[in-house]
Input
Amino acid sequence: MINLEQIYKDNKALLEGHFLLSSGKHSKYYLQSAKVLEDPKTAELLAKELAKKIKQSNLDVELVCSPALGGILAGYELARALGVRFIFAERVDKKMTIRRGFEIEPKQKVLICEDIITTGGSALEAADVIEKLGGEIVGFAAIANRGFCSITGSGKEQKKECKLPKNLPFFALGDFEFEIYDQDNCPMCKEGSTKAVKPGSRGN
Ligand code: ZN
Output
């Protein structure tokens, strides 16, 4: 079994400090999954582990689709590990769309893959587009989960923020649960020696 937290730390993808997230909330930790996936060997290792879980569940997957941009590396490696085709969905004028000549066969069994699932909003939008084009969503996958959604088999309860449908499986390699605070309640702000900094564009 892999130690996901250690892999994130080793790749400087789990940062500790005082961060201002795109939501306006403050956090002591910040995940930068692109840093984990920048080494193809690590990406391959993680995707193989995820593929193993999916195969063990006997889920029939014919195609992997990721929402751009964050999900693409994880989804591509997962598709390789599962031996299936990969496509991605992207936003055009804020609307999730399938472009670039990507095709979905009628009733094709599609797994949606992200790097990290927070509430699953983008993953769900990608799933909606696939369904409108005639595909069938069979499940969701991510390298890591922020603890709002419940990994199938974990026994943990899904929080109200999670947007993934409860009737479909969700595969991930582990949970990263940490508190986020309003500025008024932020212990780092109260402590006073640091100011919250913006680490990336979207806080994931
Ligand atoms: Zn703060």
User: Anything to note?
Assistant: Residues 4-191 form a domain with the Rossmann fold fold (CATH 3.40.50.2020). The first helix runs from residue 4 to 10. DSSP finds six helices and nine strands in the chain. Helices lie at 4-10, 33-37, 40-56, 72-82, 121-132, 187-191.
